[in-house]
Structures
1.
Amino acid sequence: MASSKSKNILERLDAGELIIGDGSYIFTLERRGYVKCGHMTPEASVEYPEAVEALAVEYARAGADITQTFTFYSRDIGTPEDVNLTCREINQASCDIAKKVAKKYDTIVAGGIVYTAVFKQTRNKKDVQDELREGLEVLIENDVDLIIVEYFRNIIEMEWALELALSYGKPVAATMCIGPKGDQDGVSAAECGVRMAKAGAKIVGVNCLFDPFITLETVKIMKDGLKAAGLNPYLMCQPLGYRTPDGGSYGWIELPEYPYAVEPRTVTRFEVAKFAREAYDLGVRVIGGCCGMESVHIRAIAEELAEEHGRLPEASRKSDLDLSVLGRKANLGRREYLGKGTKDFWWNLVPATGRPLSASLHRQENPQTVSKSVLN
Ligand SMILES: [Zn+2]
């Protein structure tokens, strides 16, 4: 076994390391038949632990430094009726899996908490923190290495969550699911970044809801705001694996294709490599993925940034890293492979959808990144 790395993400970032996050769990496991859509609850950790473990292993092999616990994501309507498991039983099984994989692959175990249902109802700090405490306790009992306070749409709730998460003395990262226009109440992305940092988060950024390039736009706004405020936390982003230039204020959730027909919007490995390079150049030092970011995408991040990351992932053994395999096919006179052995070909390719009737954008009522007039 290779020498054990520090499990403290802040120490590693302070040492100049790039940290690669893992990818999509709930959305990927739904597509694989282990999660019921709408519920989006993680009972698979008890029912099909081998499926959850296999996915965590995929990300570790793809180069992820972090293994996230597959703990509760949405409690809006609870688990499906045929599931008789408590939240605690499920979350404990999820922690067991993450710890097992982390031990084998020397990754950082991260546990996440997300926005509460109660915030919408009462906007009461105690109610919110009580609900979040329940989710945090199992993570603390399991001694996770990192708490990710993620998928918050409102900076006020994020501040309450951060106050609680930081009280346990563990490293905390904070990411909001917002676009360039800011949070649910219209608080700018710049101010959200500043307030997360002022609330004590040493790592701030954006996750889910929007595509990689839009996410970078949002992170850039945050970065400029932080700079103007004289703050310098580490930046993090974990975007969707789907293109959403026409996303609404609730990002991809407002697209008609969500959740059952988003596949044509899937990002390619080359788009993700471009995103990873741009993210690194922007100064983002924790780069991973959210819904739809599969192991192929995490591997693309790790390969594009192999030099900065100091290693190639285990799964690169099966990559055509310099495209020489395709190049050899072209050199054999295979016309259909002409040009495919070059990086330029793939980086400049605009993939077709194969659907003659498909439009490039949905006529969104409240587009966040394109002018509404474009969609008329
Ligand atoms: Zn997500």
2.
Amino acid sequence: MKSLRVFVVGAGLGGLAAASCLRRSGFDVTVFEQAAALGEVGAGVQIGPNAVRVLHQIGIKDGFEKVAVRPISLDVRDWETARIINTITLGDTYEARYGLPYYHVHRADLHTLLADAFEAVAPGCIRLNAKCIGLEQLNSEVRLTFDDGTSAVGDVVIGADGIHSSVREALFGPDNPHFTGMVAFRGTVPLNRLPPGLIECKGYNWSGPHHHFVHYLLKGGSLVNCVGVCDQDDWRVESWSVEGDMDEFRNEFTGWHDTIQALIGGMDSCFKWALYDREPLAQWSRDHTTLLGDACHPMLPFLAQGACMAIEDGYVLAHCLRTHDSAAAGLKAYETIRLPRVSRVQLGARERGKTLHMSDPKAMAKRNAQNAADPAMRAREMDWIYDHDVAAEYGVLNEPQPASR
Ligand SMILES: Cc1cc2nc3c(=O)[nH]c(=O)nc-3n(C[C@H](O)[C@H](O)[C@H](O)COP(=O)(O)OP(=O)(O)OC[C@H]3O[C@@H](n4cnc5c(N)ncnc54)[C@H](O)[C@@H]3O)c2cc1C
């Protein structure tokens, strides 16, 4: 196929990873981002071995190792007593099991690495202040229009513009999200504000009635990332840029173990996000346009795979465009490969949410007993996700191709 002009709308984690994969496959890539400056909202993100494989393929290895944290385990604990219900050993055990480690990383650090990796192979190809407001399929090209009145014509458009994707809406109309009745509070605490030894280099998942609380270390272990999820019906704003109320966060976790009190007490501020769920889409592509990441498979955060799936998407998309004779066939093949896997993760995250937020004491006791009886069960359940090896399936992306422009 001739060297296509590929437009990626959105410079989030998914869009930037895709841009590097596409550029390294020889395409002429431009990323359009609505923000005035590159950056990421929020703090931590968990990156499983399946996504680490993609990062390595686009040259993000040593830099990532420097900023990311390798947790030694994931502890599931009782909300009130801190009793350990289940421990999954991560660290070297995970590396031996999946060939690569499991990481916790600050989103801004990962975002910077992704932007630098793309800049290294496509200097000056990210356009900021470029909010896409229109998309038109021409004969064999696509025209994007932006809110400053400008437009651009390319061969292929990738909508990587997140959960409220305007590209998705242009292709398939408005979506129909379902409010889950759950709200997530998110904040960070400098480790030096907490009693020494309180937080180890682990992931923690505290499980209580109608609530759960996850925390882990970032920034070389100097910062604790916390997410508290509660059943709550009166907040419907799906955005990380909206500040939450610290008193409300504290009240939601009244009666929880002292560790949780110390964590919430150590925060200066928090964000509040209403969790919406969506059915898997039946279709992602039309003509020369497709979708990627949250734009086509927004998922509840309970398997910690939304960003990982977005990162995998770009690798497969680049492979499909490389190996098909026409852009439309490549996009169709991408959708056919990705849709079943990603839909399964979407639905799995939904089920995990139900298990996490049980409130009936008998059901909770039964769940905890099952977890305690078979501590490896949870790890086994994730094998099909973490084992996925994009390089083995779709070929390696070693060196950048020479620039075509
Ligand atoms: C509480 C919580 C915890 C999570 N934890 C994890 C985790 O541990 N691990 C994990 O893998 N995932 C996690 N996720 C999911 C993850 O955050 C998302 O799946 C991921 O960020 C999606 O990336 P994206 O690039 O598709 O979209 P986004 O990150 O939303 O990026 C979209 C980009 O498009 C830009 N944009 C939007 N509209 C336009 C437009 N019209 N024109 C131009 N640009 C536009 C935006 O400014 C943004 O830069 C979590 C999510 C939540 C809510």
